[in-house]
Amino acid sequence: MEDSLNHPNGIPEDECDRSVAIGEYKCPVCGSVGSNTMMQKKIPHFKDVLVFNYTCNKCGYVDNEIQDAAPLQDEGIIITAQVNELKAINAQLVLSSHAETRLVEIDFGIIPKNQASTITTIEGYINNVIHSLNEHLQSIAEAMICNAELSIELSNGQMTDATEYIHKLTLLKQDVMGYAEGGKPFTLVINDPSGNSYVEEVDGITIDIEKYKRTNEQLVEMGYATSQDFKKEWDLAQPLDDEDVGQEGMCFFVDCPHCGNQGKNKICEVVVPGFGKCVIMAFTCEICGAKSNEIKPGGGYKDYGKKWILKVSTIEDLKRDVILSSTATVHIVELDVEMSPGTVGGVFTSVEGLIIKIMEGIEKNHPFLIGDSTPEMKSSIRQRVKLLEKYANLQQVESYTLIIDDPANHSFIGELNTGEQGDSLKTETYTRTYQQDEELGLIGMNTEDY
């Protein structure tokens, strides 16, 4: 096998993303040398992917494959897609190489074993299941020619007669074919510990998404190190003084949630003018490059909630400092766009940076609706993203209203660089509702004798 890689001629740099390579490898069918093209591409579904295309000019063998080049998401994901109408089987589907799928009604599952990542549709997935069942049935039928009394070992260890096994699989295949023809609704469950699988939201389909923390067994199966592999003992006998945090900051070594190696978690207390003390936490992993940061306002919840109302009309308004706590709701009135509490966690940014984070949140939650492959009739969210991009730079927009509503009063919009609050910024203090107190954990809290 030759391992020389060369950049192809005739491919524009913008199309190959400056990362196209061609290699010559032996064909797995005829043994002749074929051409394998590898290209790194950014698409809305997988973010970063590697696309492989192998072609043998002698026997005509062709093989296509994609591999997700994006890092693991922070959490695993379980997607439950209830397909209720025939047109919903055209919904696009992305399955990473770690995704386990199951058709609930017939209790049929596919375990990820040496499978490649794929971009297809629900109909394409069903057709692949039917194709795999046909191949399996054919292999058993051929084996029965040589042994008419063939027995099959099931996954639970039990033995069954091959004839009965074929009968059950045939009935199972008929049920799956009924799904492809739209005869009855069905439920597809995707369990992906990498978090890189998606199902397109279209009419006729109901999608429920649940995120979870990966287990050590799942990390090992995906080829990543676990926290136990890098566990060390620390001497924590020495007490920490409160004033140590506010001076030069503190640094702890903690396990990286992505690769399991130890990274640095730096903590520092800062004083924000006009707001008060805040604790900034920044994590970096030098092994895999993972980074995260978060800000936590100091002190407890305030007695009253607070609403910040900013009329953004100048470039100076975009440069205002913003502290957004995990309990705050962000609302852009003119676009009717609202970001619920906890969407981005605690951040210290600017008005411009906050609008960009809202854009990124929409793109992450609706990857198919943002992509170029989306039909024009489904482009309403894409249009909102384009408008948010204009709002972030005040392009072709005179003004808009940004509201930050924080029942804990841990959020903040800063003054202009001139040191003045300006007429465009207003604040409202209000008494929290019973539901807001309950969400903050204040109902039933016993503070006596403390």
From TrEMBL:
<dbReference type="InterPro" id="IPR042452">
    <property type="entry name" value="ZPR1_Znf1/2"/>
</dbReference>
<keyword id="KW-0479">Metal-binding</keyword>
<feature type="domain" description="Zinc finger ZPR1-type">
    <location>
        <begin position="254"/>
        <end position="415"/>
    </location>
</feature>
<keyword id="KW-0863">Zinc-finger</keyword>
<dbReference type="GO" id="GO:0005634">
    <property type="term" value="C:nucleus"/>
</dbReference>
<keyword id="KW-0862">Zinc</keyword>
<dbReference type="Pfam" id="PF22794">
    <property type="entry name" value="jr-ZPR1"/>
</dbReference>
<feature type="domain" description="Zinc finger ZPR1-type">
    <location>
        <begin position="25"/>
        <end position="201"/>
    </location>
</feature>
<dbReference type="Pfam" id="PF03367">
    <property type="entry name" value="Zn_ribbon_ZPR1"/>
</dbReference>
<dbReference type="InterPro" id="IPR004457">
    <property type="entry name" value="Znf_ZPR1"/>
</dbReference>
<protein>
    <submittedName>
        <fullName>Bifunctional Zinc finger</fullName>
    </submittedName>
</protein>
<dbReference type="InterPro" id="IPR042451">
    <property type="entry name" value="ZPR1_A/B_dom"/>
</dbReference>
<dbReference type="GO" id="GO:0008270">
    <property type="term" value="F:zinc ion binding"/>
</dbReference>
<dbReference type="InterPro" id="IPR040141">
    <property type="entry name" value="ZPR1"/>
</dbReference>
<comment type="similarity">
    <text>Belongs to the ZPR1 family.</text>
</comment>
<dbReference type="InterPro" id="IPR056180">
    <property type="entry name" value="ZPR1_jr_dom"/>
</dbReference>
